[in-house]
Amino acid sequence: MLGLEDGSTWWGEAFGDATNASGEVVFNTAMTGYQEVASDASYNGQIVVMTYPLIGSYGVFARAAESRIPWVEALVVRELEATCREGTTELDAYLRAHGVPGLAGIDTRALVRRLRAQGTVRGAILQVPPHLAGDAEVANEAVAKARATAALAQRPLVVESTASSRQVGAGPKVALLDTGVKENQIRCLVDRGATVRTFPATATARDVLQWAPDGIVISNGPGDPAAIPQVSQNVKILLDAAVQRGPARPLPILGICLGHQLVGRAIGATTSRLPFGHHGSNHPVRDEATGAVVITSQNHEFQVDEASIPSTSGFVVSSRNLNDGSVEGLRHRTLPIRTYQYHPEGAPGPRDNEPAFDLFLADVRAAVARK
Amino acid sequence: MKVLLIGSGPILIGQAAEFDYAGTQACRALREEGITTVLVNSNPATIMTDPGVADVTYIEPLTVEVLTRVIERERPDGLLATLGGQTGLNLAVQLADAGVLERYGVRLLGTPLDAIRKAEDREAFKRLLIEIGEPVPESTTAHTVDEALAFADTIGFPLVVRPAYTLGGTGGGFAYDREQLATVAGRGIAASPIGQVLVERSLVGWKELEYEVMRDGAGTCITICNMENIDPMGVHTGDSIVVAPSQTLSDKEYQQLRTAALKIIRALGIEGGCNVQFAMHPEHAPGDGPTPYYVIEVNPRVSRSSALASKATGYPIARVAAKIAIGKRLADIPNAVTKRTTAAFEPTLDYVVVKIPRWPFDKFRTADRRLGTQMKATGEVMAIDRTFEAALQKALRSLEIKGQGLLWESPAWTGEQDGAAFAERWLSTTATDDRLWRILAALRRGASVDLVHERTGIDRWFLRRMSRIVRFAEDELQGRTPTPALLRRAKRLGFSDADIAVLTGILPTDVRGLRTQWGIVPVYKMVDTCAAEFEAVTPYFYSTYEQENEAEPLPKPRAIVLGSGPIRIGQGIEFDCCCVQASASLAERGVAAIMVNSNPETVSTDFDASARLYFEPLDEESIASVIANEGGNVDVLAQFGGQTALNLADRIDAIGGRVQGTTPDAIGLAEDRRRFHEFADALGIPQPPGGTADSLAEASRIASGIGYPVLVRPSYVLGGRGMEIAYGPDDLERYFGHALEAGTGRVLVDKYLRGREVEVDAVSDGERTLVAGIMEHIERAGVHSGDSFAAYPAPNVLPAERDEIVRLTETIARSLPVKGLLNIQFIVEGGRVWVLEVNPRASRTVPFLTKVTGVPLVRLAVAIAGGSTLEREGYPSGLWPSGDLVALKAPVFSMAKLLDVDTYLGPEMKSTGEVMGVDRTFPPALWKSLVAAGLAPAPSGKVLVTVADKDKAEAEQIVEGFHWLGYEIVATSGTAALCRRLGVPVSEIAKLSEGSDAILRLVRSGQCAAVVNTPTFGKDIDRDGFLIRRAAVEARVPCLTSLDTALAVVQALRASAVSYAVAPLSEYRQPEAVAAAG
Ligand SMILES: Nc1ncnc2c1ncn2[C@@H]1O[C@H](COP(=O)(O)OP(=O)(O)O)[C@@H](O)[C@H]1O
Ligand SMILES: Nc1ncnc2c1ncn2[C@@H]1O[C@H](COP(=O)(O)OP(=O)(O)O)[C@@H](O)[C@H]1O
Ligand SMILES: [Mg+2]
Ligand SMILES: [Mg+2]
After folding, report:
1. pTM
2. d(CA A35, CA B522)
3. Global ipTM
């Protein structure tokens, strides 16, 4: 069962691993891509409710994994489906193997409506034997546990999510600061002919710069950007390096999601919580330069506050969310530094925004050519 | 700015009510922008042609000539052609080709012509796809078997062979090796009139997927919905059971196809909606890299699938497409559902949608029921629920095929009780309309999912879910006593009360009783386009067995309008029209209209057509739940949704509602032919003599009493189903065999009267009655009213007969009594008037008559149902004066799609749609209706006349008529003799039975302007005649099987030289204006 800090309790059938869990409860509206969602490190610390009711239909498979393990604290669904596809593993088995619990049979739409109305809510999943189903004491325990759940900012989520350094691909050198990177970002870069070396979130800016990268990516990741000042500090150093080198010897930087927020903080802007986050594959974003609207994949709780962006920072808001007007991207006026609040790598979600990687690699190649 | 919209014309298989929905939305969307809309459509039974939808409405034939004259007169700035189906699109291209658009400076709005051509021309489209690197199934055209074999050598097997220019791919087929290919290609080349076949890689068994996508002029592209066909490739998407969203695709695959779809519409330069169809490899392991797929086709317009996608997601595709066409950007168009976001987003579903087609095979017993690449369904139902199992079961309930629910099995199957053997015998890759039931039957008998998959190619995911339903029924419900837990699980899996009752052996009402007692009632969830992410204001709901209810009872006053369900022969779009008008009329009266319907194609299920929409099956269970959810005590309007709604009327009281208007008792009195007979006799209302028989012996006794020929039919059916004329005892005997099968064993035997058939639509408040008009059928009685040409005002009815018709109508209305609409069919013979049938509800002709007379029949009926009177509404009683116009309603058939169906007209209805021809006088009105119905013969050529002996005498004037019009008469021996006797030159042609197929060759030669052929009735419908009629249908030669129609055609042809008017409908109703316009 799931208990929320607002006192509501949701009873269903357990699947996945038979453990308890707690975290922030968020919902994701993508109709496909439960595996990508589950294995996205940005969900570290969160219990994810899938709004699409049937989850698990096509199993899980290596190519759809966004990192080495599922990061969600727990998955809540209306109905868990067994796979129908050859060569795939059951979602149930996958979660069990990684110690992640699941809850099925929930009126997820009712739950989502509550989350929408309440904003972000903490919750706790308890394993309850059948004879205690509906038990008031259990319910109280779950609610108490939910209320006792640490806020995102109090957990070292990024440090948990980051992996040790590795290097893949061949071509211009791209340093990727891994604050919980989604594998598809690396695939998108490598497919476009880059050498990608990841640096753990604990690495220093000096470590990164010493490798003499031709471009830098600051990846997505979990939690509150304000909670990781050392990482923002590192990002600031990297940005300063790029600014110092100026247009003549450009150092292209690409920030995605948490990476975008970190750049925002590094240039002196503040970040804040959205009412209930953006999690889904259908968010419209308007490019402020061209007016073009693209459909994006999103997964974030926090935003860069537009009003707080210092006018002297050299950055402008390059795109906004069409629904709520929140900042979706920053661009430096003169330097090849671009950030996206959404996920240009999709996975799950549209591939329409992969040109962001083309643009970045074009910048990187131009930088290499100028050397 | 002024914009011309082209409608899609009559309802045909493959082009149906979805375009009324699209056109109506488009008109409203444009008017909202301050644009003057001019609409042309030949179909009066549409909401789009209702007053107030477009600014100017023409009900005229959809031809280049007519449209040119409309353009000449209206001088529109733009033409919107992508919302009127294939008809609208083709006309736009023709107008452009003819230089008309350029001449009058009319801009084609939305998707540019060039893109339309590229998408429509299969060759050009293929080239484009190859250019942009999208995979197309390899194909070639071959004129010889060797060419076909050479192609096979390059791409391998399996292949599909499609002969050019044959209907429904007749003569084509699949080949799995060289030997088969040689046979199939040889046969195909022979079947093709130009000796050519298309040989293409066969993708039978691949997953078939559709993407509904949109692009605006600025290049923003979005996907509205993807849909997966449960029936894999090989069955037309229109004939497939479809789910939305796709269920078996991983995100990688979903995005792969989404990306391809958007790439294609970008490359084409679509501005508006577009439908892209794909085939995807069925067995590919998703872990092994990208899944192979092919692009099958695109439709560069709003399509049937877009109507389904609109209803499945709540996203108003046609409305947005219309706004894009006038240059708006997606991001500038407000989202009408959330009211806060914009149209630039992708809907996300938190439920499952299942669509099941509705086929006409219950009416056409002889039709080829195999499904293939040509669509055969006339309509469809859609159901929404939170699981696939529940949505599928709800869709099954929505089909309204009597007795054919989840548990139905064909008597032919009972012999085979072994699962594996059953699957071997009854399942194959060739689908039939009953394949779903065959699968259920196989699973019930223990066939494995793998075996069924192997036999049908249907993905295991779907089969597992079907198996879950079957297993639950067999293992958990069958013979058990319901407990709260069991009932709850059964309802969550979608089992209907009726099926639970059958399985557990209690009564359906007891199941409902137990449920209510245990609190197992459905909740209603909103279709909000965004999976609850944003607060939405749309009043669009579906039922499900979950926790939270989102549909609080509407405040009073409110009333439920019962819809008419899927479109089928006999119950078409006319009824949907009436329901929509009823909703609007309620709104005008300050009453919140609550619509219940299951048809995704129509205007009635548009979320803004009513104050609230419940997308639900039209059965007692779901209406009871809706009434309960609205807090009980709800007024119900049952007269507008055809027989579907009417059949529910007598249950409404018991489930907490109140029927407004004519009481269920009065309805029952009119509907039950035996009761009505007694009632009419008591009032001295003349009826064809006859009686009711429960056995053959009884029927024979009645028949010999009244004398042959007699008309026999089962009681309580719609559309003349199971109705035949028996000329002698043999016919009667044969008939009885079928009748028992068709349902009710009770059979009515009536004297067959060969008079003129006349029909009225009236509205009554129980005291006073307004007869909106009298329509006279061109074909004599014996041809179903739905298949007859009907003329208004009745040209041959004498004043005394007219008065008698009005008097009888008033008497019947007062005595039943009727409070609301009333349709009566009469036979007028030798100054006498007989009542054939009384329908205490909206009829098929209500939209037609409303349009030509201007009498708002539905609005008056709604007012009366709500307690008003004719007088209070300001309307007189008696016959409404008919003014100066003449209007003809002509039936339209979809026979080209239904192989093996005989096209001759009889008492069983066969048409799928209707058109209207309206003018100042009879001949041009008739001519226009013929043109609009596609029945106008070519201006010159040969006319083949071959009529039954009983009709020879009457055929004289027809032969003479065609002769004087300059046609060359070709006739078989008997008819030729008749011509010679008349002194009409004739070429005699051998009969088929004389061993020559010259006659079929003539029909297909392209020189044949018309065929006049009447069937020889008797034991069996003649085989020769059948072949001739089919050949005519397939060669698109007008085939006249009733001498009355043939005579009318002759008359109309005589007048066709005379000019006809082209004017807005409202102008025909005002005498002077048209005269002035000349
Ligand atoms: N190469 C093929 N192999 C097998 N089936 C096919 C093939 N091409 C088309 N089909 C089937 O024929 C149906 C109709 O073909 P389509 O090209 O979509 O024509 P339409 O314009 O009538 O929709 C499709 O829905 C599909 O099921
Ligand atoms: N007694 C009769 N004599 C001649 N034709 C009849 C007679 N009864 C019915 N018909 C013909 O059969 C058609 C269908 O009969 P009807 O009673 O209207 O059934 P439905 O319920 O299908 O409309 C009528 O339109 C009429 O042409
Ligand atoms: Mg198609
Ligand atoms: Mg009738």
Report:
1. 0.95
2. 32
3. 0.96
